[in-house]
Specification:
By secondary structure, the chain is an alpha+beta fold. Helices cover 47% and strands 16% of the residues. It has helices at residues 2-6, 12-24, 29-36, 40-52; strands spanning 26-27, 56-61, 71-75. Strands 1-3-2 form a three-stranded antiparallel beta sheet.
């Protein structure tokens, strides 16, 4: 887990969010929330901070079950500069 060294100073919530995205590839905020057993607003804030730090990016939209399509989040591919 190369990214883990970069986010070692992050909170446990960000670490759990990163870890789930690492193993599951792409998840919605709702799916992340239920899988790490935290509220949607907490997970959304952690995702926003990880996006601001260029660790997480929006990949596209999940299949809709009615209403607005959920945004899929995934880890940013490893830049060559991080070697």
């Amino acid at each position: 887990m190369v990214y883990l060294r970069r986010i070692a100073f992050y909170s446990k919530l960000k670490h759990n969010t990163f870890e789930k995205l690492y193993y599951e590839r792409a998840l919605t905020c709702s799916n992340l929330s239920s899988s790490i057993d935290k509220s949607i607003p907490l997970v959304a804030r952690a995702l926003a901070e990880l996006k601001q730090d260029d660790v997480v990016i929006a990949e596209g939209h999940a299949d809709s079950t009615g209403g607005r399509k959920a945004l899929l989040n995934r880890l940013r591919p490893k830049p060559k500069v991080w070697n």
